[in-house]
């Protein structure tokens, strides 16, 4: 049992990054990290989720829900910032757990992140393909159904656009981190310009009457049944409400998922020039920028149209159409398509870095821990995972599995917060360039907030997540436990 919770010292983790064949090239600045964070967070959530939540759950108070969700993420971000500056090694929550909670927990969270980032990349690629097909339709070009994916085709369908997108992004990641950062910077600039245009243009159509009532009267949610119901309802009998003050918190559990991805920034710690200074800045700055943008967009869209009249599928675009301005609807669709490109790129980046870190520790075959002699990137896992995810995105309809991305992220938040508390007690001597304030209170609050949001997910999501975790534990027992670097070091002694 003691071997299951053996920890890898921070010093050893850092020494491993200095081996020439397994070292990643340091090329990122605080600005690059902030751009990565904004690039992965700002996706379809800002263009779609605001209308759905406003109409069905919170009304104009959706802006408050974004604030609440941003606070929950900020609690986790403060924990991530301490770890990323103290343990500047690729792998994010996986590496942090290995240094504080032990090998088995590290494997579980690493296995969880592999699922989260891989599935997230595939889901986003399919969403990007849908936006591009819509733009092509607007100019009179229609994709054949057989090449539009299983959600569109009658029978077998292969989503060629999603497949090609993932392959192109894989090539960019192999060619170098700095190139990836430059591509991301350009695309994020375009995306932010589109968001800015929407906010400024929308302000001219805001009517104060649409904000009344700002917090609509509470009403009970439709009761779920069976595995479709939230776990909190099945276990505790708690029935969440729509609207009212409690509705704001219910909405926060939904819009939280628009923030998913900021933790990916932590996976690039090893490739940052001055991680002790730049990692906290990149993580916290990107989260702050995105929270402000989400609040601004939600205020604009609920001010343009009364929340009861908003579209659920495309609220911003349809709001402009309803006011006689279809040009802005096209701009929004273009911004969404461009924005999803960076989301896909950075999720794929995070996935390959976690896989690389696990292979360097011996929990996965060390064949995948070699870096490219010229580009300094983990090219082997990047190519392998890029091809697999491209095929999955091309042939699979995975809308029902998208919530697995959410539960995986929240689980990582819980582990990182607990890791901060443990490492403060076990290694108080470590130099910490950034210290999470109010430990252990703040990490405990972060754990409680993340667990509460997890409980609001459907029970079937918990079931699928549990099955994935069981598979991971079996792989660890058969391979990782015996081949890890710590196990081999113990055998030599």
Notes on the structure:
The model has no long low-confidence stretch (mean pLDDT 86). The chain has a two-stranded antiparallel sheet with strand order 1-2. Helix content is 66%, strand content 1%. 53% of the residues are buried. The chain has 18 helices and 2 strands. The longest helix has 36 residues. With 493 residues, it is mostly helical. Helix 4 packs antiparallel against helix 11, helix 6 packs across helix 7 and helix 13 packs across helix 14. The chain is globular and about 75 Å long.
The order of strands across the largest sheet is: 1-2
Order of helices and strands: HHHHHHHHEHEHHHHHHHHH
Note poorly predicted spans: none
Helix percentage: 55-70%
Count of DSSP H/I helices: 18
Q: How many angstroms separate the termini?
A: 19 Å
Q: What general outline do the C-alpha atoms trace?
A: globular
Q: Tally of extended strands?
A: 2
Structure classification: mainly alpha
**C-alpha-based Rg, rounded:** 22 Å
Largest sheet, if any? 2 strands, antiparallel
Average of the residue pLDDT scores: 86
């Amino acid at each position: 049992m003691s071997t299951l919770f053996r920890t890898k010292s921070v010093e050893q983790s850092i020494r491993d990054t200095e081996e020439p064949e397994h070292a990643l090239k340091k090329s990122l600045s605080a600005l690059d990290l902030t751009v990565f964070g904004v690039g992965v967070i700002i996706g379809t959530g800002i263009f779609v989720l605001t209308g759905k939540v406003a109409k069905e759950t919170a009304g104009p108070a959706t802006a408050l829900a974004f604030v609440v969700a941003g606070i929950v993420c900020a609690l986790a971000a403060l924990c991530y910032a301490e770890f990323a500056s103290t343990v500047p090694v690729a792998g994010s929550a996986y590496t942090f757990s290995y240094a504080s909670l032990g090998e088995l927990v590290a494997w579980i969270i690493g296995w969880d992140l592999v699922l989260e980032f891989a599935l997230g990349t595939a889901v986003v690629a399919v969403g990007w393909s849908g936006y591009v097909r819509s733009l092509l339709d607007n100019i009179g070009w229609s994709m054949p159904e057989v090449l539009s994916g299983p959600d569109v085709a009658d029978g077998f369908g292969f989503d060629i656009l999603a497949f090609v997108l993932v392959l192109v992004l894989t090539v960019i990641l192999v060619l170098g981190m700095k190139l990836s950062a430059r591509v991301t910077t350009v695309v994020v600039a375009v995306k932010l310009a589109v968001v800015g245009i929407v906010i400024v243009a929308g302000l001219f159509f805001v009517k104060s009457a649409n904000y009344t009532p700002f917090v609509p009267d509470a009403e009970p949610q439709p009761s779920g049944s069976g595995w479709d119901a939230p776990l909190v309802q099945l276990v505790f009998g708690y029935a969440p409400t729509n609207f009212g003050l409690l509705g704001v918190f219910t909405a926060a559990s939904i819009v939280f998922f628009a923030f998913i991805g900021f933790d990916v920034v932590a996976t690039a710690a090893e490739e940052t020039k001055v991680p002790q200074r730049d990692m906290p800045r990149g993580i916290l700055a990107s989260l702050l920028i995105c929270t402000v943008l989400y609040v601004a967009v939600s205020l604009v869209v609920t001010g343009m149209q009364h929340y009861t009249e908003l579209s659920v599928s495309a609220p911003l675009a349809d709001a402009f159409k309803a006011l006689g301005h279809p040009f802005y609807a096209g701009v929004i669709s273009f911004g969404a398509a461009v924005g999803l490109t960076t989301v896909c790129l950075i999720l794929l980046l995070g996935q390959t870095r976690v896989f690389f870190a696990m292979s360097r520790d011996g929990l996965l075959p060390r064949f995948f821990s070699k870096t490219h002699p010229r580009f300094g990137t983990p090219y082997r896992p990047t190519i392998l995972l890029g091809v697999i995810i491209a095929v999955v995105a091309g042939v699979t309809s995975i809308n029902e599995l998208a919530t697995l991305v959410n539960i995986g992220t929240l689980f990582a938040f819980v582990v990182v917060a607990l890791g901060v508390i443990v490492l403060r007690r076990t290694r108080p001597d470590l130099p910490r360039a950034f210290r999470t304030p109010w430990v252990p209170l703040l990490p405990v609050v972060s754990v409680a907030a993340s667990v509460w949001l997890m409980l609001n997910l459907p029970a079937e999501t918990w079931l699928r997540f549990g099955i994935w975790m069981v598979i991971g534990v079996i792989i660890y027992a058969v391979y990782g436990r015996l081949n890890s670097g710590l196990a081999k070091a113990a055998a030599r002694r």
